[in-house]
Amino acid sequence: MALIFEDVGIRFGSARNELTVRGVNLRIERGSTVGLVGESGSGKSSVAKAGVGMNRLATGRVTIEGSELASPTRTLKHPARYGVQLVFQDPRTSMNPKMTIGETLSEAAALYRKPNAQNGRAKQGRGLDAQAAARRAEELLRMVRLETSHLARYPHELSGGQLQRVSIARSLAVEPDYLLLDEVTASLDVSVQAAVLNLLRDLQRELGFAMLYISHDLSVIRYVSEHVYVMQHGEVVEHGEVTRLFDNPQTAYARQLLDAVPRLGGARWQHSEA
Ligand SMILES: Nc1ncnc2c1ncn2[C@@H]1O[C@H](COP(=O)(O)OP(=O)(O)OP(=O)(O)O)[C@@H](O)[C@H]1O
Ligand SMILES: [Mg+2]
């Protein structure tokens, strides 16, 4: 069981333009944490967006547990129903400033539809009613270790770290199996970053979702990932098990990326079942 990107190509603008992302193959096993790293503009966000139907594919396909999510002729409309969620770098721009935290979370919770046991896909039809959605909003807020008093607040009344927790809570509303996290700690102070990373690790242990963790911060990538993909100019140039890749990069580009950061100690998430 996995979320798989196969030969993914993405083109922006005119059909005559060259592909911005070319031939990307990525595999995120159920429950695992995969890192995606590469310089600014290398195509990391473009790939993640293709995974939730925000970018149309020019080539290839994206599948989840063997079912097609996206292809050049089909862009899924409600990826959340299929268990894939994308969390963005800046929670301030991805959240409606006119809605309270409670409203934002209730709205997300109301979308939730129980998956069909047979094919794993969410059923059509009504999601949670208003009361159930409000209860779920409280539960989601507690899951990300925020006080329920935050429900009545507006986004501008929360710190960046608190807001990123809300944004993670929102993504969890539909019980995703795969979370695509696009630079989610990049805009936070180092200490807040660590708290958000540890929260994600704890939630992953509790809930079992897989993560694609996108970052240009190699120390974070090393800390969280089991397997790492390196992108450059719209292509995956190298991938491999995290320790192997960090200790013995095979490509000049990966070596250059690694040389650019100070060597850190071997602190790693414990991925074994606790
Ligand atoms: N909607 C779009 N329309 C046109 N060009 C785009 C669009 N989205 C991305 N691009 C271009 O595609 C290339 C890859 O962008 P992308 O955002 O995927 O890079 P990235 O690896 O996420 O970079 P960063 O680390 O800065 O977030 C860039 O050259 C960017 O300008
Ligand atoms: Mg990006």
Structural class: alpha/beta
Question: Superfamily at the CATH H level of the domain at 2-97 and 177-259?
Answer: P-loop containing nucleotide triphosphate hydrolases
In CATH terms, what is the fold-level topology of the domain at 2-97 and 177-259? Answer: Rossmann fold
Shape: globular
CATH domain class name of the domain at 2-97 and 177-259: Alpha Beta
Strand order of the largest sheet: 7-8-9-3-10-11
Residues in β-strands, percent: 15-25%
The CATH architecture of the domain at 2-97 and 177-259 is 3-Layer(aba) Sandwich
Mean of residue pLDDT values: 88
Q: Which stretches are poorly predicted, pLDDT < 50 over at least 5 residues? A: none
Biggest beta sheet attributes? 6 strands, mixed
Q: SSE order, as H and E?
A: EEEHEEEEHHHEHEHEEHH
Ligand catalogue: adenosine-5'-triphosphate, magnesium ion
Helix content: 25-40%
Rg value: 19 Å
End-to-end Cα distance? 21 Å
